[in-house]
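Comment thread on ticket #2218

A.B. wrote:
> Attaching the input chain for the structure job we discussed in standup.
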Amino acid sequence: MSDLVTETSLTLDRAYAAHQQWKIRLQESVNAHSELDVATIRRDDCCELGKWLHSDGGNAYGHKPEFKSLLAKHASFHLVASVVAGIINTRQYEEATAMLQSVCDEAGCHLWMDLESFTMTDHVLLPRPVEGLIADLNRFTSFEKVLHYQFPGMMSSPQMSRQPGGAASVKLYGDYLQYLKEGPQPNIACGKPVTLATPFDARHSGGGPNALTDGFSASENFDHFAWQGYHGNNLDAVVDLGQLVPLRQMYASFLHDKPHGVYFPAKVEYAVSNDGKTFTVVKELTPEAPNGNGPLPRTYNVELDGVTARYVRIRAANPSKETWLFVDELVVNRK
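C.D. wrote:
> Ran it. Output below, let me know if you need it in another format.
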């Protein structure tokens, strides 16, 4: 019997460590936007502890109330983990994180998230534009925020004698200081309803029909949650600002990432309307072909003067029926 107790102790120690690791794996999947095997996670007889519970453990201790409680809690763990995994697979990362946070709170565990302040472009490590950093910082409001430099030079003060990150790191430093001083820079389209004349692809929903006005900016990563993707379809979206508003600026961002089949639009058109039916085109743009494979986000901007409207429309032509068109936040009169 003593050998069985010793073996049980070792099994439970390993099981505890393994299930702690599962919480890390779920969190890493949120960070990396990777998919998980929901069916296997749901089963409570595949892990080392589950196998023991349903074999030697059950034979030796199955009659004890404590064992029955452990069996139920272990099954509940795998059920909750599978639900979180399923939500991750549908790209509802905020919902998955909130559920994972509640599980950790109940267990008295600390949940953290690694936020990268750099991006890789053509095998070169570069500072991320501040919009992507700010969007990620604001996505998970319950998280402890700790900013640190994982690599020297991601942010460089203009006063530094050496700036290993170059001009981009100086710009990120200034942009982040401005954000700390002034806070988020809202725009009048933020939170307003969007009507789409063409459907987005569910694999890259950007969060749903109102993704273009949800306030979140995408990073250079094609799999970032904020990108709304159109596979073979054109973009045709109308935003209702709620009332007649003097307009001075509109812009949206698009992505070029050739290895993933994502290309800049062949044409971008901005239009305005007072009634939502008759639109006047205020700007047409023909994007230039980029150099290299990307990933490369680019903003297409229109400056307006003396224009008043309630509705704004953006159209973007997909280069072909086989390519992806990725669009991010439509910004109007950034404050």
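A.B. wrote:
> Thanks. Noting for the ticket: The chain has eight helices and ten strands.
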